[in-house]
Amino acid sequence: MNELPQQLVNGLLLGSMYGLVALGYTMVYGIVQLINFAHGEIFMTGAFGALTVYVYILPDGTSMLIALPLMLIGAMIISTTVAVGAERFAYRPLRGGPRLAPLITAIGLSLALQQAVWAWYPEAKSARTFPSIPGGPFEIGTVTIQTGDVFVLCAAPLSMAILGYFVMRTRTGRGMQATAQDPDTAKLMGVNTDRIIVVAFALGAIFAAVGGVAYGLKYGQIDFRMGFILGLKAFTAAVLGGIGNIYGAMLGGLVLGIAEALSTAYISDIPGMQQFGSQSWANVWAFVLLILVLLFRPQGLLGERVADRA
Amino acid sequence: MRQRSLIAVTAALAAGALTLTACGSRDEGGSGNSDSGKGGTTVVIGIDAPLTGDLSALGLGIKNSVDLAAKIANKEETVDGVTFKVEALDDQAQPSSGQQNATKFVANDEVLGVVGPLNSSVAESMQKVFDDAKLVQVSPANTNPSLSQGTDWQKTQTRTYKSYFRTATTDAVQGPFAAQYLYNDSKKRKVFVIDDKKTYGAGLAATFTAEFKKLGGKVVGTEHIDPETKDFSAVATKVKSSGADVVYYGGEYPQAGPLSKQIKAAGAKIPLVGGDGIYSADFIKLAGASGTGDLATSVGAPVEELPSAKEFVANYKTEGYKEDFEAYGGYSYDSAWAIIEAVKKVVEDNDGKLPDDAREKVTAAMQNVSFDGVTGKVSFDEFGDATNKQLTVYAVENGDWNDVKSGTYTG
C-alpha cells in the first residue's frame, strides 16, 4: 500500500496546528520584537477553557454541534484574558527595558502558567479527556480522516483568511502594519500603539484557542504540559516561515509538520539510515531543515529583508 | 544586527529546552501521616515514586500502599519499641530528581530503607547513592534485568549493588512471557514493535522481540517514539501499511493510550500489547473505546484474586485513600513489609535496640527475608530479584482490565 498520501495528510494536520499557534508568535514578534514563550501556555489555557465549558457549564450530553461553538468561545475568552493580562502586567512594564528582560519574563510566565493549571485546575495533574466529535472516519481513496481532523482542516485556512483580511483591510490592521514598520512614526501619525500591541496579543490568543480546541478534538486529551513542546515547534515554524510574516507562520507550520511526518515514514527506508528514521528522530530532522533554510534564507521562507531597527 | 542575534539566542534556547522537558520542581510530596507511636525508636521508610505528572496514578498507589504497611506494623506492634513513619519524595519519573531524593534519604539518619522507584531509568540513577550508604532499596516496580544482574545479564550475570532488591518480576521473564502468549494462545505471527527508548521500554521490547523471533514469528516493523509528543499519526500509518496483526509497545500508559487510539483510527484494527507499564486504569481512559481488546502483561497473579491479598484490599479501603492502589499496590506493600521484617530481625538480634550500623545490618538481613505477603511468598534470590516469577495477561474488556491467563515463563 502506498502510504504517501496518508503521511502527507498526517503532516498537514499536525502542521496546521503548528501554524495556528505560530500566528501568535509571529504577530507579537512583528510588532514588539518580543518572543512570547508563554504563547504555548496560552494555547494550553485555551484548551482548558473549552474543557471547562463542556464539563462544568453545559449540561451533560449536549450535542457537539451546539457545544463546539460555545467551547470555542469559552476557549477564546480564557486565552485572550490570559494573553492580555500577561501583556498588561508582565510585558508592558518592561517595554523599553533591555531586550532580554521580557524574554526571560516570558519563560518564567510559561512555567508559572503550567504550574497554575497543574495546581488549581480540577484533576489536571494527569491528562484529562476531551470530548470528541461523533461520526466515523472518512475514507478518501487510501486516506483516512477523522472527524476531529476535519475541524482543523477547516479552521486553519479560515483563520488565515480572516487574519489576512483583518490586517490588510481594516483600520486597526493597517495600524498594526504601521506599528510593525516603525512604531515611533506610527505614534506620530496618530496610531495608538499601546492598543495595537494589545490587539496583537489578543488576536494571537484567539488563534491559539482555536489550535487548543483542535488539539483536544484530535488527540482526545489535554494536559498542563501540552503547550510546552507544541509552543517550541510553533516558534520554530514561525522562524522557518519568516518571523513577523503571518503567511510565513502558516507555511512554516505546514512545512514543519510534513517534514516530521515524512522523516518518520521514509528516512528508515534509506539504506544505512535505519537507526535515524524513527519518530524519536523527527525533531532532529525538523531542526536540520530549519538550519538549512536559515543558511540559505536567513530571513525565513517568506520573510522580507527589512532593515534592522535596533 | 542585534535583532538577528536575539533570534539566534532564542533559537538556541528553544533547541536546548526541547531536550530538557522536565519543567521545574514541584512540591516535595508531604511526609506521610502515620500514627506517631508511643515512644521508642522511630524508623522512617522512604518512598520514591512519581507523585505528580503523567505517571502519578501508579506513583500514588505505591505511596499509599507503603503508608498502609507502616500503619499496620505500628498498630500490630510488629517490631517492639519501633515506630514506623514514611517519608514520600516525588521523582517526577526523572532520573535527576530520583538521585536528589536518594541523597536526601541518605542524609536522614532515621531512614533505614526505601521503597521505590517506579521507573527503571530512575533506579539506575539511585542505586549507587544507596549502595555507598549501605541503605537498602526495594523496588516494587522496576523490571529491567540489568538493574540487578548487571548490564551484560544475557551472558554473565553479576550483581552490581548489594543494597538493591525488588519484588517485581524482571523483563527477562515478562517480555518472553508476552511473546509466548501472543504466539501460542493468540496465534499472532506478524508483530510491529514500538518502544520509547527508555531503559524500561527498550529493554522490554528487546526481550519480547528475541523470544517472538525464536518462536517463529516475524517482526514486520520497528519504531521508536518520542515520549514528549502526543502525535503518533505518522507511526500509526506505518503500522497500518506494514500489515502487522499485533503491535507490541515497550513503554508506559501516557504514550501507549494515545498510540493505541491513533493506530486504530488509522485503520489498523489490531490489538496493542504492552507490559506492566501500561497496566493502569488510565490507559483505558486514554485509549478510549477503541482500546477494547488491548492486552497487558503484569507481574504476579491478579492481586484482587489472591486469598492473601483480601486483607490488603480490605485494609486499603478502610483507610480511605483517595487514589486506587493500581498495578503495584500489592508489591509496594510487600516491599515495605520486607523492610519491616528486616528491621525486626536486626532489632531482635540486638536485644531489642537498633544497632549503630543499622543500615548495613538491615541490608544484610534483607537477603534472608522470607514471609507470606500480599502477592504470595516474598523472598529474594542471589541477585536481589523476587523469587516469585509469576505473570498475568490482562485484556481490556468493558472498560476494565480483566485477567486472561496467569503463569510462569519457562525458558
Automatic annotation (TrEMBL), chain A:
Pfam families: BPD_transp_2 (PF02653). It comes from the Bacteria. It comes from Streptomyces pratens. Belongs to the binding-protein-dependent transport system permease family. LivHM subfamily. It is a multi-pass membrane protein. Its main location: membrane. This is Branched-chain amino acid ABC transporter permease. The lineage of its organism: Bacteria, Bacillati, Actinomycetota, Actinomycetes, Kitasatosporales. CDD domains: TM_PBP1_LivH_like (cd06582). It is found in: Cell membrane. Keywords: Amino-acid transport, Cell inner membrane, Cell membrane, Membrane, Transmembrane, Transmembrane helix, Transport. The chain crosses the membrane at residues 12-35, 42-59, 65-86, 98-121, 150-168, 196-217, 237-259, 280-296.
